[in-house]
Amino acid sequence: MTLLIVTILVLAYLLIATENLTNINKAAVAIFAAALGWVLYICYGTDFVMSQHNSEYLVFLGKASSTSASVKHYIAQNIFLPYVGRASEVVLFLLATMTIVEILNNNGCFDFVRQLLRTRNSRKMLWTLSVVTFIISANLDNLSTTVMMLTIMHSIIPNRRQRMIYGSAIVVSANCGGALTVIGNPEGLVLWNLGAVTATNFSAALAIPCVVAWSVPTYLMGRMLPEHVDTEWITMPYRGDDTRLNIWQRLLMLFVGIGGLWFIPTFRDITKLSPFLGAMCVLAILWIVNEIFNRKLMNSDMMAQRRIPQALQYGVIQMMLYVMGMMLAIGVVVETGAIEWVWTYLEAYLHNIWIYGLIAGAISSVVENFATAMSFFSLSPFTVQSLADTSSMIGINGAYWKIIAFSVMAGGNILAIGSISGVALLKMEKMHLGWYFRNVGWKCLFGMIAGLVELWIVM
């Protein structure tokens, strides 16, 4: 049964890696693999529980005798629900941050980006797009930032080849910026929620490597562009009326949204509560400010573009379901004991976190980087005791977590299918993988190697 459950996960990885060819949605694959895996697990629940949770189960039973119903009840309450809780923390945080992005974007808080892009100098526009994307994705989340910046870029640049270069730069910037902080992408958020890293230490260690992995390919992509870029300025989309928030209102909303997210690490340190609660609090405050500023708009109750956050729509919910599915699918494999066996084998024959990082980077170039990261995070014996050992590579702020987090991010840039942001670019510009690797992928590989060298120096 363990082999069968592991096989299901491997087949799910193959389908996720070939989504561009099969057109089977990765979220559906992840959810199905998770559901099927847990059903099979509970069918042989007695064997798994007695081998992995023997003492805890005996305490749970007390003086009662073990039955099939008691085993299933134990699995549902003591094994399955904790995984649901961990996945829900990440999903709810993503829901909050993506909704914050939509509220800010719908109120024109990012309109300054269009003003910064009013130039025909191709390299200046490239670096402007890249820097803004890098900064925003580090403070919000990389997928929402990517979609927003690709939409802005698409409306300005009519030339498809130039759009593909600028779009690639946006994806690389969003992924590198997101990896810089614990709130910038799901991988860092998982580590932060589990207590494997602290926000300040994580960002300090990855600052230079992320900047290197971002700036090297961006500079090389700039050499592909002509001296001047063709631009096309389109009137801002109709938002329900002719009224727009004034500058101070937009600045206040930007401060509440991004400034509130900056406060979340402090919120967690003080309260010890999950970061998603802080993100929800920021969202609630921003939402109230949004309602106050927009209360006098004409037909305000009918303006979906302004008052209803678009983050609740189909595309973003797919990502959240995918995150939930992958965390549950990998969780059931962990509970079979297969992951522990793999870790013991690797430690016996390799015992080198840098080799683990290179392997993770190679896999994430084909398989989506969140799935790869979760697999490698689950490999280590992640317990309270192991985290408490600060001198260990898998202790709190251990080198292992940072190397894997950086490697899967950088590896995901080599082929666009390695990240959700890259897949969004492929779909928007109808880009071929061959073109991407010939023109962008090898540059990202060079940036990844340079970033790993910097990370090795920092470590």
Overview of the structural elements:
The chain is mainly alpha-helical. The chain has one domain. 76% of the residues lie in helices and 0% in strands. It has 23 helices and no strands. It has helices spanning 2-17, 19-22, 26-43, 45-52, 54-61, 68-106, 112-116, 122-139, 142-156, 160-180, 186-194, 199-222, 247-271, 275-293, 304-307, 314-336, 338-349, 353-364, 369-379, 384-388, 399-414, 420-429, 433-458. The protein is globular. Mean pLDDT is 84; it is low at 237-242 and 302-312.
Helix/strand layout:
Layout: H1 2-17, H2 19-22, H3 26-43, H4 45-52, H5 54-61, H6 68-106, H7 112-116, H8 122-139, H9 142-156, H10 160-180, H11 186-194, H12 199-222, H13 247-271, H14 275-293, H15 304-307, H16 314-336, H17 338-349, H18 353-364, H19 369-379, H20 384-388, H21 399-414, H22 420-429, H23 433-458
Class based on secondary structure composition and strand pairing:
mainly alpha
| N- to C-terminal distance | 40 Å
Taken in chain order, the helices and strands follow as: HHHHHHHHHHHHHHHHHHHHHHH
The residue-averaged pLDDT reads 84
**How helical, in percent, are the residues?**
over 70%
**Main sheet overview:** none
Shape: globular
Percentage of residues in strands: under 5%
Count of individual helical segments: 23
Beta strands, count: 0
What radius of gyration results from the CA coordinates? 23 Å
The residue ranges in which pLDDT falls below 50 over 5 or more consecutive positions are 237-242, 302-312
Q: How many domains comprise the coordinates?
A: 1
